[in-house]
Amino acid sequence: MSNLLKDLRYGIRSLLKNPGFAALVVMTLALGIGANTAIFSLVYAVLLRPLPFPESDRLAVVKEQNSKTAETLPSVSPADFFDWKRQNQSFATLAAYSGWSITLLEGEESDFIPATLVTDEFFTTLGVQPLLGRTFTPDEFITGSNLVILSHRLWMRRFGGDPHIVNKTLAVNQGRVTVIGVMPAEFKLPAYAEAWTPVAQDSGEMQLRPSRYFDTVARLKPNVTLPQAEGEMRTIAARLASQYSEADSNWNVRLTTLRETLVGDSRPALLILLGAVGLVLLIACGNVANLMLARATARHRELAVRSALGASRWQLLRQLLIESLLLSVSASALGVLLAFWCVNAIVWLVPKDLRFPRIEEAHVNLSVLLFASAVGLLVSLVLGAISGLKASQPDLQESLKESGRSASASVRLRRLRAALVVAEISLTLVLLVGAGLLIKSFVKLQHVELGFNHDRLLVVPIGAAMPKYAQPQLRAEFFENLVRQVQTVPGVQSVATSSTPPLMYTMFFPFGVEGKINPNEVPQAWFSSVSPNYFEAMHIAPLAGRSFTDHDLFGTTKVAIISDTLRRRFFPGEDPIGKRLIVSFLNTPLTVEIIGVVSDIKQQSLSAPANAQIYLSYLQVPWFSSALLVRTQGDPSVLAAPVGRALRSIDPAQSGSAKTMDQLLSDSVAQPRFYGLLLSSFALLALVLAIIGIYGVISYSVAQRTHELGIRMALGARVQHVLILVMGQALTLVMLGASIGLGTAFGLTRLLRKFLFEVEADDPFTFGVVALLLAVVALVACYIPARRATKVDPLVALRYE
Asked: What is residue 251's three-state secondary structure?
């Protein structure tokens, strides 16, 4: 133990004598360890941390899968769900939920609250008790009730954590509701919900079968496995498909765990990021290993003297390992401090629509600290072994007879250092190619054709409160009044409405072509209820027929306008004008006549392909909610407040939570922008580390070859010959590293395919540009030591040491 303490004290003194070396090693490793710790914090919070539900491994989700198209929907129709609930024997409990919204009218300003409708046993299935009050009782689901349970964040944000909130009544756009409970802070299912209300199970809506919008959660019985439950549910689904062939034909079920559903697409994205920072750490380790090998070479005589005085190989190796451990412990401590800042920065950068589950809970906790400690320990052992195995066995005869000349690195050691640089270059090129592909994809997304004019457009969601506007005619009149009122606001150029504004909402309804209905195939189309002037206000190009007019009213023939994609798929080579569609509108067949065709637009997202779309006039078929699309004469954000006041003058329940279309466009590319920014940051860090590594190796090589270069110049070698000699060594390393990196990137970039838009994973342009960029930057970094080599004075070099 005393020997260990002596080695520890000696290691500290040795590092303090070389503060520049110690600081460079600690900073390099800290960057790598800090980045890895930060990303691991996200991975732990999202993928590894246990769900906040008792026996969460028994929680499952039932999804519907189309056996013909292989499409899997995370949702189910209400009628199918209640049949599942009655017929299954595998689940202890089965519940469903669906998103909706309420507008809170308490105080001076209304507040838009994302809420969730839940069925009986929702909270029982999850096994969570409220923080205050109670949950819903079974009888409160029969006809529905004006009750609400608040989320912890809404309770704190809007009511200041009032402990007496239970049994208070609140004014909302549907009337008044009574608060019966507050959920604990960790309960967030679904993640967006700020309130939960009961479903009225005897309503006609619960008999809908074609429309699938209920998400499910089930608790398996103790003796039932997931495959057993899936087998039983498939039997039930087959029975329902036979019984209700029009709605359930070709639909089967698939079961997944609740964790898998919540994680969703987060897993591959986070694992790719973790792999990327892992490469950064390897590059950092390569840099540090080169530094430590150079230092071990410089300490060759010291180690030889200690060996000659009786130190064993293990004692020398132990000394070097302790010094490596001191460096890695310091780097780990600094890396953890960097991770604290990085985690907060990354969580802040994560776009809201990405919705990593529980991402806000990511922080540096005990598990993360253990991870950082393990990484630091592994790094110290590897680096200590690399620098120590050779240095701890010095050639005493050669080392002790050197007449004051510093030891030169052996051929094997020089090759090892060169190999480390080659590895750094290849790993850096992999990161640069990945970042380049994401950046090119992001650029293409920003230049995609939208199909409408997004300039100076304000989008304001509105809703017709039930039961006040239960009748379609009343809803149509309500929307018309809002449009007229907003049209009077100074600076407004035109106003249109849509139940599904682009890049904000989508809604699918089954439909068929009259005379061509196939009972084994029920296609679905996006549905939009729009105002007559919608296409003119949005600058959507008409292709055939006419647009809606104010004469398309209740009592007249119901008409529809279809997208170009629907025309090409269902009316190839024929004129669709005058043909009829049968739309399953809220489980009721609705026959509409096609009067026009318009161009496709980006409805769902910029990267989603065009889909069949059906537009109906809201004067004939108004939806329960809509959005005002306000074309302004100037900056649309300036008119958000005046438009909101105009809406509330007609209906105080309108919150006026407006967004510009430019904001929606920015939100729609938030995910690729986030991934591109993060991976580019890692790639840039890797590039800096790799350039430092190349510079260090070439500089060290020049220093070691000073005597040789002096002789060459004394014998008549020209400056350009020396420059070519040194640069040639660097070029060999760069070309070898680039070749290995291109081959590795060619295989690994396949993992990025799902994150790319109109860019192939093996895009030759990106590969070529990145390779050229890396080569140019690397050669520039090599030029400085190479140029220094040409400045060698032969007289000085010949008496070098």
From this structure: strand
| Whether the Cβ atoms of residue 568 and residue 581 lie closer than 8 Å to each other | no
Contact between 636 and 494 (Cβ < 8 Å): no
8 Å CB contact between 196 and 187? no
> Cβ–Cβ contacts within 10 Å for residue 43, how many?
20
Counting Cα atoms < 13 Å in the Cβ hemisphere of 396 gives: 9
Spell out the SS3 assignment of 77-139. Answer: CHHHHHHHHHHCCCEEEEEEEEEEEEEECCCCCCEEEEEEEECCCHHHHHCCCCCEECCCCHH
Query: What whole-number percentage of the chain has pLDDT above 70?
Result: 82
The rounded distance, in Å, linking the Cα atoms of 188 and 194 is 8
Q: If you compute the radius of gyration of the chain from its CA atoms, what whole number of angstroms results? A: 34
**Chain segment 412-457, per-residue pLDDT in tens:** 667 777 788 888 888 888 888 988 888 888 888 888 888 999 899 9
* DSSP-assigned letters across all residues of 280-341: HHHHHHHHHHHHHHHHHHHTHHHHHHHHHTT--HHHHHHHHHHHHHHHHHHHHHHHHHHHHH
Q: Minimal CA–CA distance to 293: which of 401, 430, 412, 428?
A: 412
Q: Kindly list the distances between the CA atom of residue 661 and the CA atoms of 348, 443, 667, in Å, as whole numbers in the listed order.
A: 22, 18, 10
pLDDT higher than 70, residue 477 = yes
Output the six-digit token pair for 64: 């519907």
- Give phi and psi for 510, each to the nearest 5: -70, 150
Mean of per-residue pLDDT scores for the chain = 80
Tens of pLDDT, residues 715-767: 667 777 777 777 777 788 888 888 898 888 888 888 888 888 888 888 889 89
What are the tens digits of pLDDT across the range 184-227? 988 888 888 889 999 887 776 677 776 777 889 999 999 899 99
Give the DSSP H/E element, type plus range, for residue 628: strand 625-632
Cα gap 354→674, rounded to integer Å: 9
Instruction: Give the type of residue at 421.
Output: V
Residues in Cβ contact with 605 at an 8 Å cutoff, skipping those fewer than 6 apart:
503, 668
Q: Which residues contact 327 (CB under 8 A, 6 or more apart)?
A: 15, 22, 25, 26, 29, 288, 380, 383
In this predicted model, what pLDDT tens digit does every residue of 523-580 receive, in sequence order? Answer: 888 899 999 999 999 999 999 999 998 888 877 889 999 999 999 998 988 899 999 9
- When pLDDT is cut at 50, 70 and 90, the band that residue 351 belongs to is low
Greater confidence (115 vs 288) lies with 115
Residue 757 is classified by DSSP as S
Quick: pLDDT tens for 30-63: 888 888 888 888 888 878 788 888 888 899 998 8
Q: Which residues pair with 252 in a beta bridge?
A: 65
185's tokens: 């802070």
Q: Using CA atoms, how far apart are residues 343 and 134, in angstroms rounded to an integer?
A: 36
At residue 582, φ and ψ (nearest 5 deg) are -115, 105
- In percent, how much of the chain has pLDDT > 90? 15
C-alpha–C-alpha distance, residues 251 and 70, integer Å: 9
Q: How many CB atoms lie within 10 A of CB 754?
A: 10
pLDDT tens-digit map of 390-400: 555 555 455 44
How far apart, in whole angstroms, are the C-alpha atoms of residue 797 and residue 799? Answer: 5
Closest to 585 measured CA to CA, from 505, 534, 527, 532? 527
User: CA 451 to CA 602: how far, in whole Å?
Assistant: 7
Query: SS3 for 450?
Result: coil
Under 8 Å between Cβ of 555 and 566: no
d(CA 753, CA 759): 8
> What is the distance in angstroms between the CA of the first residue and the CA of the last residue of the chain?
41
Task: Give the total residue count for the chain.
Answer: 801
Measured N-to-C along each axis, helices 366-391 and 266-298 cross at an angle, to the nearest 10 degrees, of: 30
